[in-house]
Records
---
Amino acid sequence: MIELPTPAYQSVSGGARQYRLASHPEIRVVATDLGLACCAVEFAAALTRGLLLPVADADPVPTLHLLVVSGTLTHALRPSIEAAWERLPEPRAAMAFGACTASGGPYWDSYSVAQGIDETIPVQVYVPGCPPRPEALIAAILSIAEGAADVIRS
Amino acid sequence: MTIAANSVEITQQIEWISAEQWRDSLASAHRQGWVCLDVLTAIDRPEQREFHVVLHANRVDSALGQWWGVVVPQHDAELASLVDVFKAAAWHERETREMFGITFTGNVVSHDPTAQGLLLSDEAPVTPLRKHVPLGARVDTPWPGNADPDPRRSASRRRQAPPGTRPEWFETGDGQ
Amino acid sequence: MIEDIAIESRGTIKLSAPDCTSCMLCVRECPVWCIEIDSHTEQVTPEGARRPRSVAVLDAFTIDWGLCMYCGICVEVCPFDALAWAPSPRGGVGEAEQLVAGIEDLSG
């Protein structure tokens, strides 16, 4: 099994990669960017456009842990995203961001690519696009946060 | 190979070398400053029953790059390894061996049975970049283009192969 | 929304169903096989015409957005401009099956 770079993942709890929606300060979403290929650039674009903002560690608002999987999942990496999902604290949700994560996308016929991440981890929201635009990422985070509002507030 | 870069067309010719001269020629090129290997891969040419193995190396004293190529027959898919010329060739040759089934004589790792499976999982097809190896999903999935609303057109239309496939993928029997 | 980007920039593709003749060009050119068309022909005699002629009637037209690579080849090959780029990106859905959009969804 190929290990994901652990320091980067651990930084989720360290605050370096925790983001909230700029438009909805009351919702604290710890969005973990699990970028496997080019779609990950769109997550970065959402940051640079100010659509997502970092949250402070001291922020008392409860958290939804969101794993944003973007890019092409090869068979070789399946155990790694499974491990990332298992380490994600509750309440949690996973987003399939882009065609590759939904179906394999342009690589749907490949000998080395999984036909979607939902063969490996449960998916709450599928965002279509090749790649989707940053606004689609924000809209999907919002829909997940709204769907999980009860969980977050309890 | 033609590469469009900043509207300037740069044509990069492949310098073809015989299989016998492959290692010595590249060793000579290395001595002349082509020290940075960045690509070594193959192209399956089933109709010609051969592979093209191509290599790209760069200089460090200028921005120049150069391609070299060699024809390798499929019935004797073996070529001298370049690991003692370019260290980076070790990885590329293992990958080319795994994807195309070409053996690189002198690449010790490539012949180590415990070091097989550089990139492919156990379930993956053998030599998947050989063109006779089907892209499984394109064989198993019915092509939506087979449907035709007009039965007359459908009868007269020559049966079209689904894009991205080869006819031999659909042949039944035990052939590979 | 980001306004200053090209219309082809991964928004969505819209279908104008009345313009579609079920010629199948888009279906056959799609590299990822994400378009499906189901249609049949009907004999129609236009007013004043002596003989009936066959017209294709579109029964189903689907795009699987979970597969689509937004290459736009379908838009390019359509001889009747029944497919066109539109700016608004598609939203997320809860089930992979909901990524398959039909005539109504694609015409909206």
---
Amino acid sequence: MRKAFIAALVELAEQDPRIVFLTGDLGYLAVEPFAERFPKRFYNVGVAEQNMMGLATGLAEGGMIPFVYSIAPFAILRPYEFFRNGPVQHRLPVRVVGVGGGFEYGPNGFSHYALEDIALMRAQPGVTVVVPADHVQAGNALRVTAGLPGPVYFRLGKDDKTTVPDLNGRFYLGRAQLVVPGDDLLFVALGTAVQQAVAAANVLETHGIDAAIALVDNLTDAHPENLTGLLARYGCVITVEAHYLNGGVGSLVCEIVATEGLDCRVVRCGVARLESGVSGSEAYMLDQHGLSASKLVEKALSVVGST
Amino acid sequence: MAGRRGHTMDPRRIRRIIIEQSHRVHVGHIGCALSVADLIAALYGGVLRIDDPDDADRDRFVMSKGHAALALYAALYLKGWLTQRQLDTFCADGTLLGVHPEEALTGVDFATGSLGHGLSIAAGSALAARLQGSRRRAFALLSDAECNEGSVWEAAMFSAHHRLSNLVAVIDLNGQQALGHTKDVLDLSPLANRWREFGWNVIEEDAVESGSAERIAARLNEIDTSTGPPTVLIAKTRFGKGVSFMEDRIKWHYWPMSDDEYTQALLELDAS
């Protein structure tokens, strides 16, 4: 996803001399195409994320469009106050690129996981949060959001191969997408978690359950305009996200169900609490937290069986 | 542009506004604002190239020690960018002139209030100017205790490494912070050497004696902002300067004035 994103960014930067790229000394084998094509607009600022976000604020106020790049928790958590008081408060077109959503940095452990990034970024008014589901969509999402006047956060996965069937990179600002139709229940998945939901839906079909899947690939402080209508059509909704249970898509769906008065049961699949110090591969961690396809199938069967 | 050659803003007028406004609304941060009055008078009177606060190619100024914003408001008023009516909304309900500056107010380039942000932001401003081939410059006014923040030194390293010659930091060295003297809380000395070792061009200037604003402006205008490393001007200031019972007294970091103190303060300012 990083390679596709950087490739799209190089294309944009060919047309737009305002684009400048800052990295906190990360992005080996990913950011080189930009650095080589635009050496004067590429800054490795060193391991100093607060300064990176402050620089981006000054650059953007001065008419540039800075992209700040790091592993997701370093891109967001260390300079969070700089982000809030800078690009958010001044409504500036700073692009924060956080690599590795959820457990993507697997064996690197807790310090490298991004499990609260969506909650933190969506809490800030005027910020567009983009969570591409695959690498094709990542490039397109960058192009679609290029003209936004305010801050954008991209949660980029590391997978440069897998694609979501039939998505073909489509991306619509302010809307969720129904990527798989179905009648019996609705999965609402955040970004790449849609892949586990698709695999689960395929298994559920063999059990005679017709599961639909909605993809949430962008969020703001407002609700996606079509999500209420989608939720209203299902009596049972299962949210799926590599994120803490609080503040992500599960919370978003509950907000909509409650405020719109929908008659819909919501089951949230996400990370409740980490076992202290335990790490493992992404697949292992997802399974441990009920987010693998097989665990989603178990959950769906128990939910449908109980209604 | 008359101000570019000679200093034209009277710091005594800034001090009077600080005293009047902070008494009117009964707020503190008086000593900090008085401490920077000469520095602000120098910058706005004779250094910053700002023909129009909306000009995209103006010099940028970051009031990194945002809690002294009242001194900045006074300068914006004296420049004619704020009306008396606006100034009189200081700390009123619904105002844009809070204790800390907001960029929504004309003349304020960046909102501040949390220490340690301003030098990075000014470095970004300076870098934008370089990338755009502009001669505009970026200035940041920092408190001495603000140098406790690690982010200040991140910005210092970056700016020196990239030789941001169009970046100027001014440090208000009054030796005090919220709960005590800087030498007791977290000793900064030798401050000039620290900046020098970080690769900055360092200027030290006394801003306690009379005529400080003119001297500071002159020193700032001597800086070559087209080549070489970034510059820091470390200005030895006096906390609460101009009001005898506030000078070098920690309590005036937060304390508001009584009516008697206000009368006394005005008498002293008028006599100066």
